[in-house]
Amino acid sequence: MFGADSPRKGSAAFPIDEAVVSRIFREEYGRSVAALIRAFGDIDVAEDAVQEAFAVALRKWPGAGLPPNPGGWITTTARNVATDRQRRESRGRELLREVAVLLPRNGDPGTSKEVGPVQDDRLRLIFTCCHPALSTEAQVALTLRLLGGLSTKEVARSFLVTEATLAQRLVRAKRKIKAARIPYRVPEVHELPGRLRPVLAVIYLLFNAGLTGPTEPDLCLEAIRLARILAMLMPDEPEVAGLLALLLLTESRRASRLRADGSLVVLGEQDRGRWDQALIGEGQAIVRRCLRRNQPGPYQLQAAINAVHADAATFEQTDWSQIVALYDQLIAVTPTPVVALNRAIAIGEVQGPAAALALVDELDLDNYYPLHATRADLLRRLGRNSEAATAYQRAAAMAPTDAERDFLRLGGRASR
Amino acid sequence: MAHYLLSVHSVDGELREPMTDDAMKESFRQIGILEAEMKSSGSWVFSGRLHGPDTATVVRISNGELLTTDGPFAESKEHLGGFYIIEAQDLDAALALASKVTKVIKRPIEVWPFVDVRS
After folding, report:
1. What is the average pLDDT score of chain B?
2. Could you list the residue range(s) of the whole structural domain that residue A152 is in?
3. Which of residues 127-166 of A touch B (CB under 8 A)?
4. What is the ipTM of this complex?
């Protein structure tokens, strides 16, 4: 594509091709779009300008070489593109002046009063994308598109909807942001608990979507990238750190989580030698910092549980009483039946399957197949084989994938 | 600044625990305080409570003629029971006011942005 035009300029040490530019695109898109939205007060203007800037980069960089700060170059170029367009498209000088007058009021009312370090515009953007006035679907789509720099096609593919549906969803969400004037600012401290919750939920949802069905692009890695950005921008929020640690520790087990046929390998049967020690080390270090801070929340507690698992060389060596203690704390802040089920499983490892079964049988989770898989396993361990078989059949009938169903049909013994 | 409609919907036949006279008085007192606060901060534009849907009337042009009929326009179990029109910096400011209203009247509030006629 570039070779014919500039055979001598493309430096051999720095071959700049579409792959390089698209990598920079993924890394810098969110930051540039966020900066442009603040400058121009409009998401579409920002997106168009940043895309145009990357098109310019694709033309220029192969010949001129990579600029020292590619992200800054993109933002500056996009700013110029947007200013030029605005000048061209505005009908006369008066309108231009009016726009200029309106901008500070349209923009962030808090900017002028802001003290302390300059806030990264991406933080404003994530709070706008995950505003509770938007549906979860819209929050997810906006976050992936604007902060993740994924194309409409990629976002659509990862959520199994058509590109047209996804595009429509984005258009509607952006229209609501504009019409209802969803602000472009970081919430104030007293608003933070309520406003941070959907932000963390969107990142966690992205990660889980990547876990349950391996997606292209990889949503687990995208979620970790967003969690890292958020943790860097909000270093004092313990739950942000907790979420990042939880994702890193879960990700560390990726290589051992699935069988070749796609069925899930339970924790006790995973090959721990294949766990990623670098991710575990990073996750555990964050968990230790959270423990010192001692402001526990659901994400930190789940991260701590995963950190305990990561410590054990074998399933049998797991410090189950510590895990039970953490689940006791978790159920106090998140009293859901799913947490209760996982707590029961941990109690089963300390007090035996009978104690766990008694707890499991109290739960109202009849439509949740892991409940039946857990019951089946506990009944099998208690030697109640015919009841176990019935429970395996129930679980199998509800299993989300064929591989999982076959595994459960065989009494959960495919690879034992 | 932008304008928002905060609307309160009533549902026909919905069973609500009847309020005691004292509770009613207390509720009105709190609404009074809230409205005074909205007026002094400049966010209050207009507000009102509406009579029931059986008091509504609809006029329309049908086949070129003006037709007046018994209302309301839409046959629905839910209808507008009252509203505020407020002025606010952005949605968050409007939502903050709406949360105060819903706490006092103990009913859900719908927050709708007005089309900005200047744009």
Report:
1. 90
2. 121-234
3. 131, 133
4. 0.87
